[in-house]
Write a structure and sequence with these properties.
globular, mainly alpha
Length: 66
């Protein structure tokens, strides 16, 4: 299992995506990405869209804006 897959699975299991994990995903996606990684990222996007996973980076931005 690739690092991208591991990060995605961890985020889905925990219910949140850390800022560090999100940055790592961006870096890995820029460097190397295969079909399995794209499938995992699609799963993460669906989980984020449905509310199953929360973005901690977004939560921080909302806190600072208040």
């Amino acid at each position: 299992m690739s690092l991208i897959n591991q990060i995605v699975q961890k985020a889905i299991c925990r219910g949140y995506l850390t800022v560090e994990a999100e940055n790592t995903l961006c870096q890995l996606f820029d460097e190397t990405c295969n079909l399995h990684d794209i499938t995992a990222l699609t799963m993460l996007q669906r989980a984020l869209s449905s509310g199953q996973v929360k973005r901690l980076a977004q939560a921080r931005q909302q806190t600072y804006a208040a």
